Amino acid sequence: GSEGGSIEEPMAAKHLNPFLDASDPASPAVDTVGFVGLGRMGAEIVRNMVKAGLPVTCFARDLARAQDLIAEGVRVTEDISTLAKNSLIFSMVSDDKALNNVLFETGLAASMARGSVFISMSFNSPVAIEATAAQLAELGIAFVHAPVFGRPDAAAAARLLICAAGDGAAVARCMPAFEVIGRKTLLIGADPKAAAITKLVGNFLVATIVEGFSEASVLAQKSGMSGGALRDLVQELFSPNGLSFAGYIQRATTGQVTENVGATVAVGLKDVGYMRAQADAVSVPLPIADIHHEHLRTLRAQGHADWDWTAVVRVLAEQANFQFE
């Protein structure tokens, strides 16, 4: 098809890999960057790469949908084989199906050179990431999974938190790009699946916060508290000078709940009891409080009323047949 910023060979620029072993025939002399997935997140990531001087070529099935980037001087192609000539190819696509499509149904993976690196930056399932890593390994292509935390405004400001996992040498080749699109890169390990688990757990924490805020909002406002007053309270509680969650996080991740006790199981039962009574009085469902109350009751029945109320993690671990180290 026609191309914006038409090119036949990837644009060479400054070396992206200070760790490159030039004697390794599988390593390109110069790393060039390809990018696929030009939605709101992807477009902002590309802009920051280009702004930093990285040699980027983007792929778009329909150039009309990439006119803004083309107008800004970004190199965009409709030809998957042109994208495949780059030695580092980043993707930011919507889901597992889209990842499989862009890699294996378009012919991209089959066209990439051995020793090149494919980097998925979207939230994909651990199962899909494991399968993708195996398929790419058979083709001699390194796979780095690097999902991000942050909305499009954070992407635009190069403030993403990047969670990268994959072969160490491959991750090192990606670092110059990561450094210009994010505020920090967490190195999760050699298995790309570990980054998928990290993103999944992070998103689960966000989901529970959204649910908690939502339940608190309805309870507060149906009980006569204004939305503005609730926003002020939340801002203070979660500000740098507000509550410290360090103790809770330490206890929940280690299972050590019998030392340095703060609020006890007995106190938690009293507090959550008041919450549920008020919710009942104004006919508001509080599913999180109900679940938490049940876990606390279990602990009390087991004789652990004097443990820290973070001991609910022990109940969950027992249900999951999991032992803390």
Report on this structure.
The chain is α/β, with parallel strands linked by helices and 325 residues long. It has helices at 40-51, 67-71, 80-84, 96-105, 108-111, 126-138, 152-156, 168-181, 192-222, 227-237, 246-254, 265-281, 287-301, 312-319; strands at 33-36, 56-59, 75-77, 88-91, 117-120, 142-145, 148-149, 160-165, 182-189. Strands 3-2-1-4-5-6 form a six-stranded parallel beta sheet, sandwiched between helices. Strands 7-8-9 form a three-stranded mixed beta sheet. Strand 2 (56-59), helix 2 and strand 3 (75-77) form a beta-alpha-beta unit. Helix 6 (126-138) packs antiparallel against helix 9 (192-222) and helix 12 runs antiparallel to helix 13 (287-301). The longest helix is centred in the middle third of the chain and has 31 residues, at 192-222.
The largest β sheet comes out as: 6 strands, parallel
Number of helices: 14
Q: How helix-rich are the residues, as a percent range?
A: 40-55%
Globular, elongated, flat, extended or rod-shaped: what is the shape? Answer: elongated
- Name the average pLDDT: 91
Measured between the Cα atoms of the first and last residue, the distance is 57 Å
Spans of at least 5 consecutive residues whose pLDDT stays below 50 are 1-23
Class by SSE composition: alpha/beta
What radius of gyration results from the CA coordinates? 24 Å
Would you report the number of β strands? 9
| Widest sheet, order of strands | 3-2-1-4-5-6
